[in-house]
Design brief:
The complex is a heterodimer of chains A (about 240) and B (about 290). By secondary structure, chain A is mostly helical. Chain A is about 70% helix and about 0% strand. Chain B is an alpha/beta fold. Chain B is about 30% helix and about 30% strand. In chain B, helix 3 packs across helix 4. The two termini of chain B are about 35 Å apart. In chain B, about 45% of the residues are buried. The chains are: A mainly alpha (about 240), B alpha/beta (about 290). The interface between A and B is medium-sized, with 26 and 37 residues.
């Protein structure tokens, strides 16, 4: 399985789509940093945890769109033609789906790491700030449920019809960029822009970072829903064609 | 290994009846050729044998157990080359075969190099698949089917796109492999079947019309094959089916098969191709 995982990963990482989308992600991340985050989010410092979370929330939709585009390849025509050969091998459908999910996870992680690296460079170069450790846990809470949910929905859509994954892309765009601000904001791009302003200001002149319980419950729901959908996809192997 | 196909009927959702209550038994060692016109049911039979389809009626058994319950065991021993397939264009030949070996659970590190050598792909081993010609891609398909020394090899039109020399080479490779395995070869090239197969299945319109040795099929056609000279514009005598036409100095030499040869025809020694055509044309089937 390790070797198959390695080849699947290599195929995606060396694909023109991934490389192009990685560049798009990086350019967009830098744009968000230098136009929005530089001013600080909700009257907090640009290098506050609030600003960091807002930065991740802003860049996540593009990262998820990238993952969905890569995932669409698994349900595309070329893949189906290769599957005529691979489906005659003894590897189970569950193993195949887990490998693909893992490969998409690594691609997503690489995108997030590049964005984070740019953020680190930005905070260090513009503000001489190096305390990135405080950003990690909230960031993981933001990105993991979002990824699991999106990939789960992507697998279901792909199983129904390869083209349906493309139909998810505008939904991601709308949800990511057009005014979703509540705790159920999948990406957090809107939530972290508005929520700090509802909190009392602390001694340092900005609200202390605290994870909102409703937002946390929403993450758990997204995580559980995504994991559940992936489990259903694994358990319900596509039926052998029956006449 | 023994595969029993018992009273299989396959009707597609479109209503097309691809196979009609066929029964056949395949046992190793054996090199079985499947002949039949397009749409006869050859590919459907092969898909059923790799558990890619579930029959509408009937059952397939692998060593006495239902095939679908033995799917993993079947696939661990299966080498399959479909008629049409895709490859990962971004990988090199060696990488793709190494990937397929990993999928098949082939642990022998020399297996990939071995099939590359057998399929004459040594020069292309580091070439990306997107740069291969059609014939070279077909050879990669054959190579992946041979990986891991499978006990059941199913080949659907394996020599399509290969030049005549390669075709002969590959049919000899398949023939060698059939010494201790089941090799199932579906092809339109009757000559390939005649050269290497010990058994022939003739499928027509979902039915098995013939199951036996090539020589017995040829014997069946004796006295049903003839030649005669015709002129341009002459019609084919009733009940005759033309196998081939060759321009000669006296006119056109027509080779025909018929239940009863017309008086103008001279009897000829049947080939497997004649016998196959006689088999599917007799009794007014086509």
């Amino acid at each position: 399985m390790t070797k198959v995982f390695g080849y699947e990963l290599k195929r995606l990482l060396t694909s023109g789509l991934f490389i192009a989308m990685l560049a798009v992600n990086a350019v967009f991340a830098w744009y968000v940093l230098t136009t929005e985050i530089i001013e600080g989010i909700a009257y907090t410092a640009p290098f506050s945890v609030w600003s960091s979370c807002a930065f991740i929330g802003k860049t996540l939709p593009i990262a998820i769109i990238t993952v969905l585009l890569l995932q669409a390849g698994y349900y595309g025509k070329q893949q189906k033609r290769v599957e005529i050969l691979t489906s005659a091998a003894p590897m189970t459908y569950a193993q195949t789906l887990l490998i693909r999910t893992g490969v998409l996870g690594v691609c997503f992680l690489i995108i997030c790491l590049i964005d984070s690296l740019l953020g680190a460079v930005f905070f260090a170069a513009f503000f001489g700030y190096y305390g990135f450790g405080a950003f990690i846990f909230p960031a993981l809470l933001e990105i993991i449920p979002c990824f699991v949910f999106a990939v789960g929905i992507g697998h279901i859509a792909g199983r129904l019809h390869g083209g349906l994954i493309y139909a998810l892309l505008p939904t991601v765009f709308i949800a990511g960029f057009l005014g979703v601000t509540g705790a159920f904001d999948l990406f957090g791009g809107g939530f972290f822009f508005s929520y700090p302003m509802t909190l009392p200001v602390g001694v340092d002149g900005e609200p202390e970072f605290a994870i909102n319980s409703v937002w946390l419950i929403a993450r758990l729901i997204y995580l559980a829903a995504g994991a559940g959908v992936i489990f259903v996809c694994i358990a319900a192997r596509p039926k052998i064609k029956r006449a | 290994m023994k595969i029993d196909i018992n009273n299989i009927t396959m009707i597609y959702p479109s209503g097309k009846k691809a196979l009609r209550d066929i029964s056949v038994s395949l046992e190793s060692p054996g090199f079985i050729g499947i002949l039949g016109p397009n749409g006869a049911g050859k590919t459907t039979l092969m898909k059923l044998l790799i558990a890619g389809l579930i029959p509408t009626k009937g059952e397939i058994a692998l060593d006495g157990k239902p095939l679908l319950s033995q799917e993993t065991r079947l696939k661990a021993q299966l080498g399959y080359l479909p008629q049409s397939f895709g490859l990962y264009d971004e990988l090199t030949v060696w990488q793709f075969l190494d990937y397929m070996a990993a999928l098949k659970g082939v642990k022998d590190k020399k297996a990939v190099d071995d099939v590359i050598s057998r399929t004459s792909l040594t020069e292309q081993r580091k070439t990306r698949i997107r740069r291969l010609s059609g014939g070279q891609r077909q050879r990669v398909g054959i190579a992946q089917a041979l990986l891991g020394d499978p006990q059941l090899i199913i080949l659907d039109e394996p020599t399509v796109g290969l030049d005549p020399e390669e075709r002969v080479k590959f049919r000899n490779i398949f023939s060698e492999m059939a010494q201790n395995k089941i090799v199932l070869l579906s092809t339109h090239i009757v000559e390939d079947v005649q050269a290497v197969c010990s058994r022939v299945l003739v499928i027509y319109d979902g039915l098995i019309l013939y199951d036996g040795s090539p020589s017995a099929l040829i014997s069946d056609a004796a006295s049903h094959v003839g030649t005669y000279i015709s002129q341009a514009g002459d019609s084919v005598p009733e009940g005759c089916h033309v196998v081939s036409k060759v321009n000669v100095s006296e006119g056109i030499r027509c080779r025909i098969v018929a239940e009863e040869l017309p008086k103008i025809a001279e009897s000829a020694e049947p080939t497997l191709e004649d016998a196959y055509l006689y088999c599917i044309h007799k009794e007014g089937r086509q």
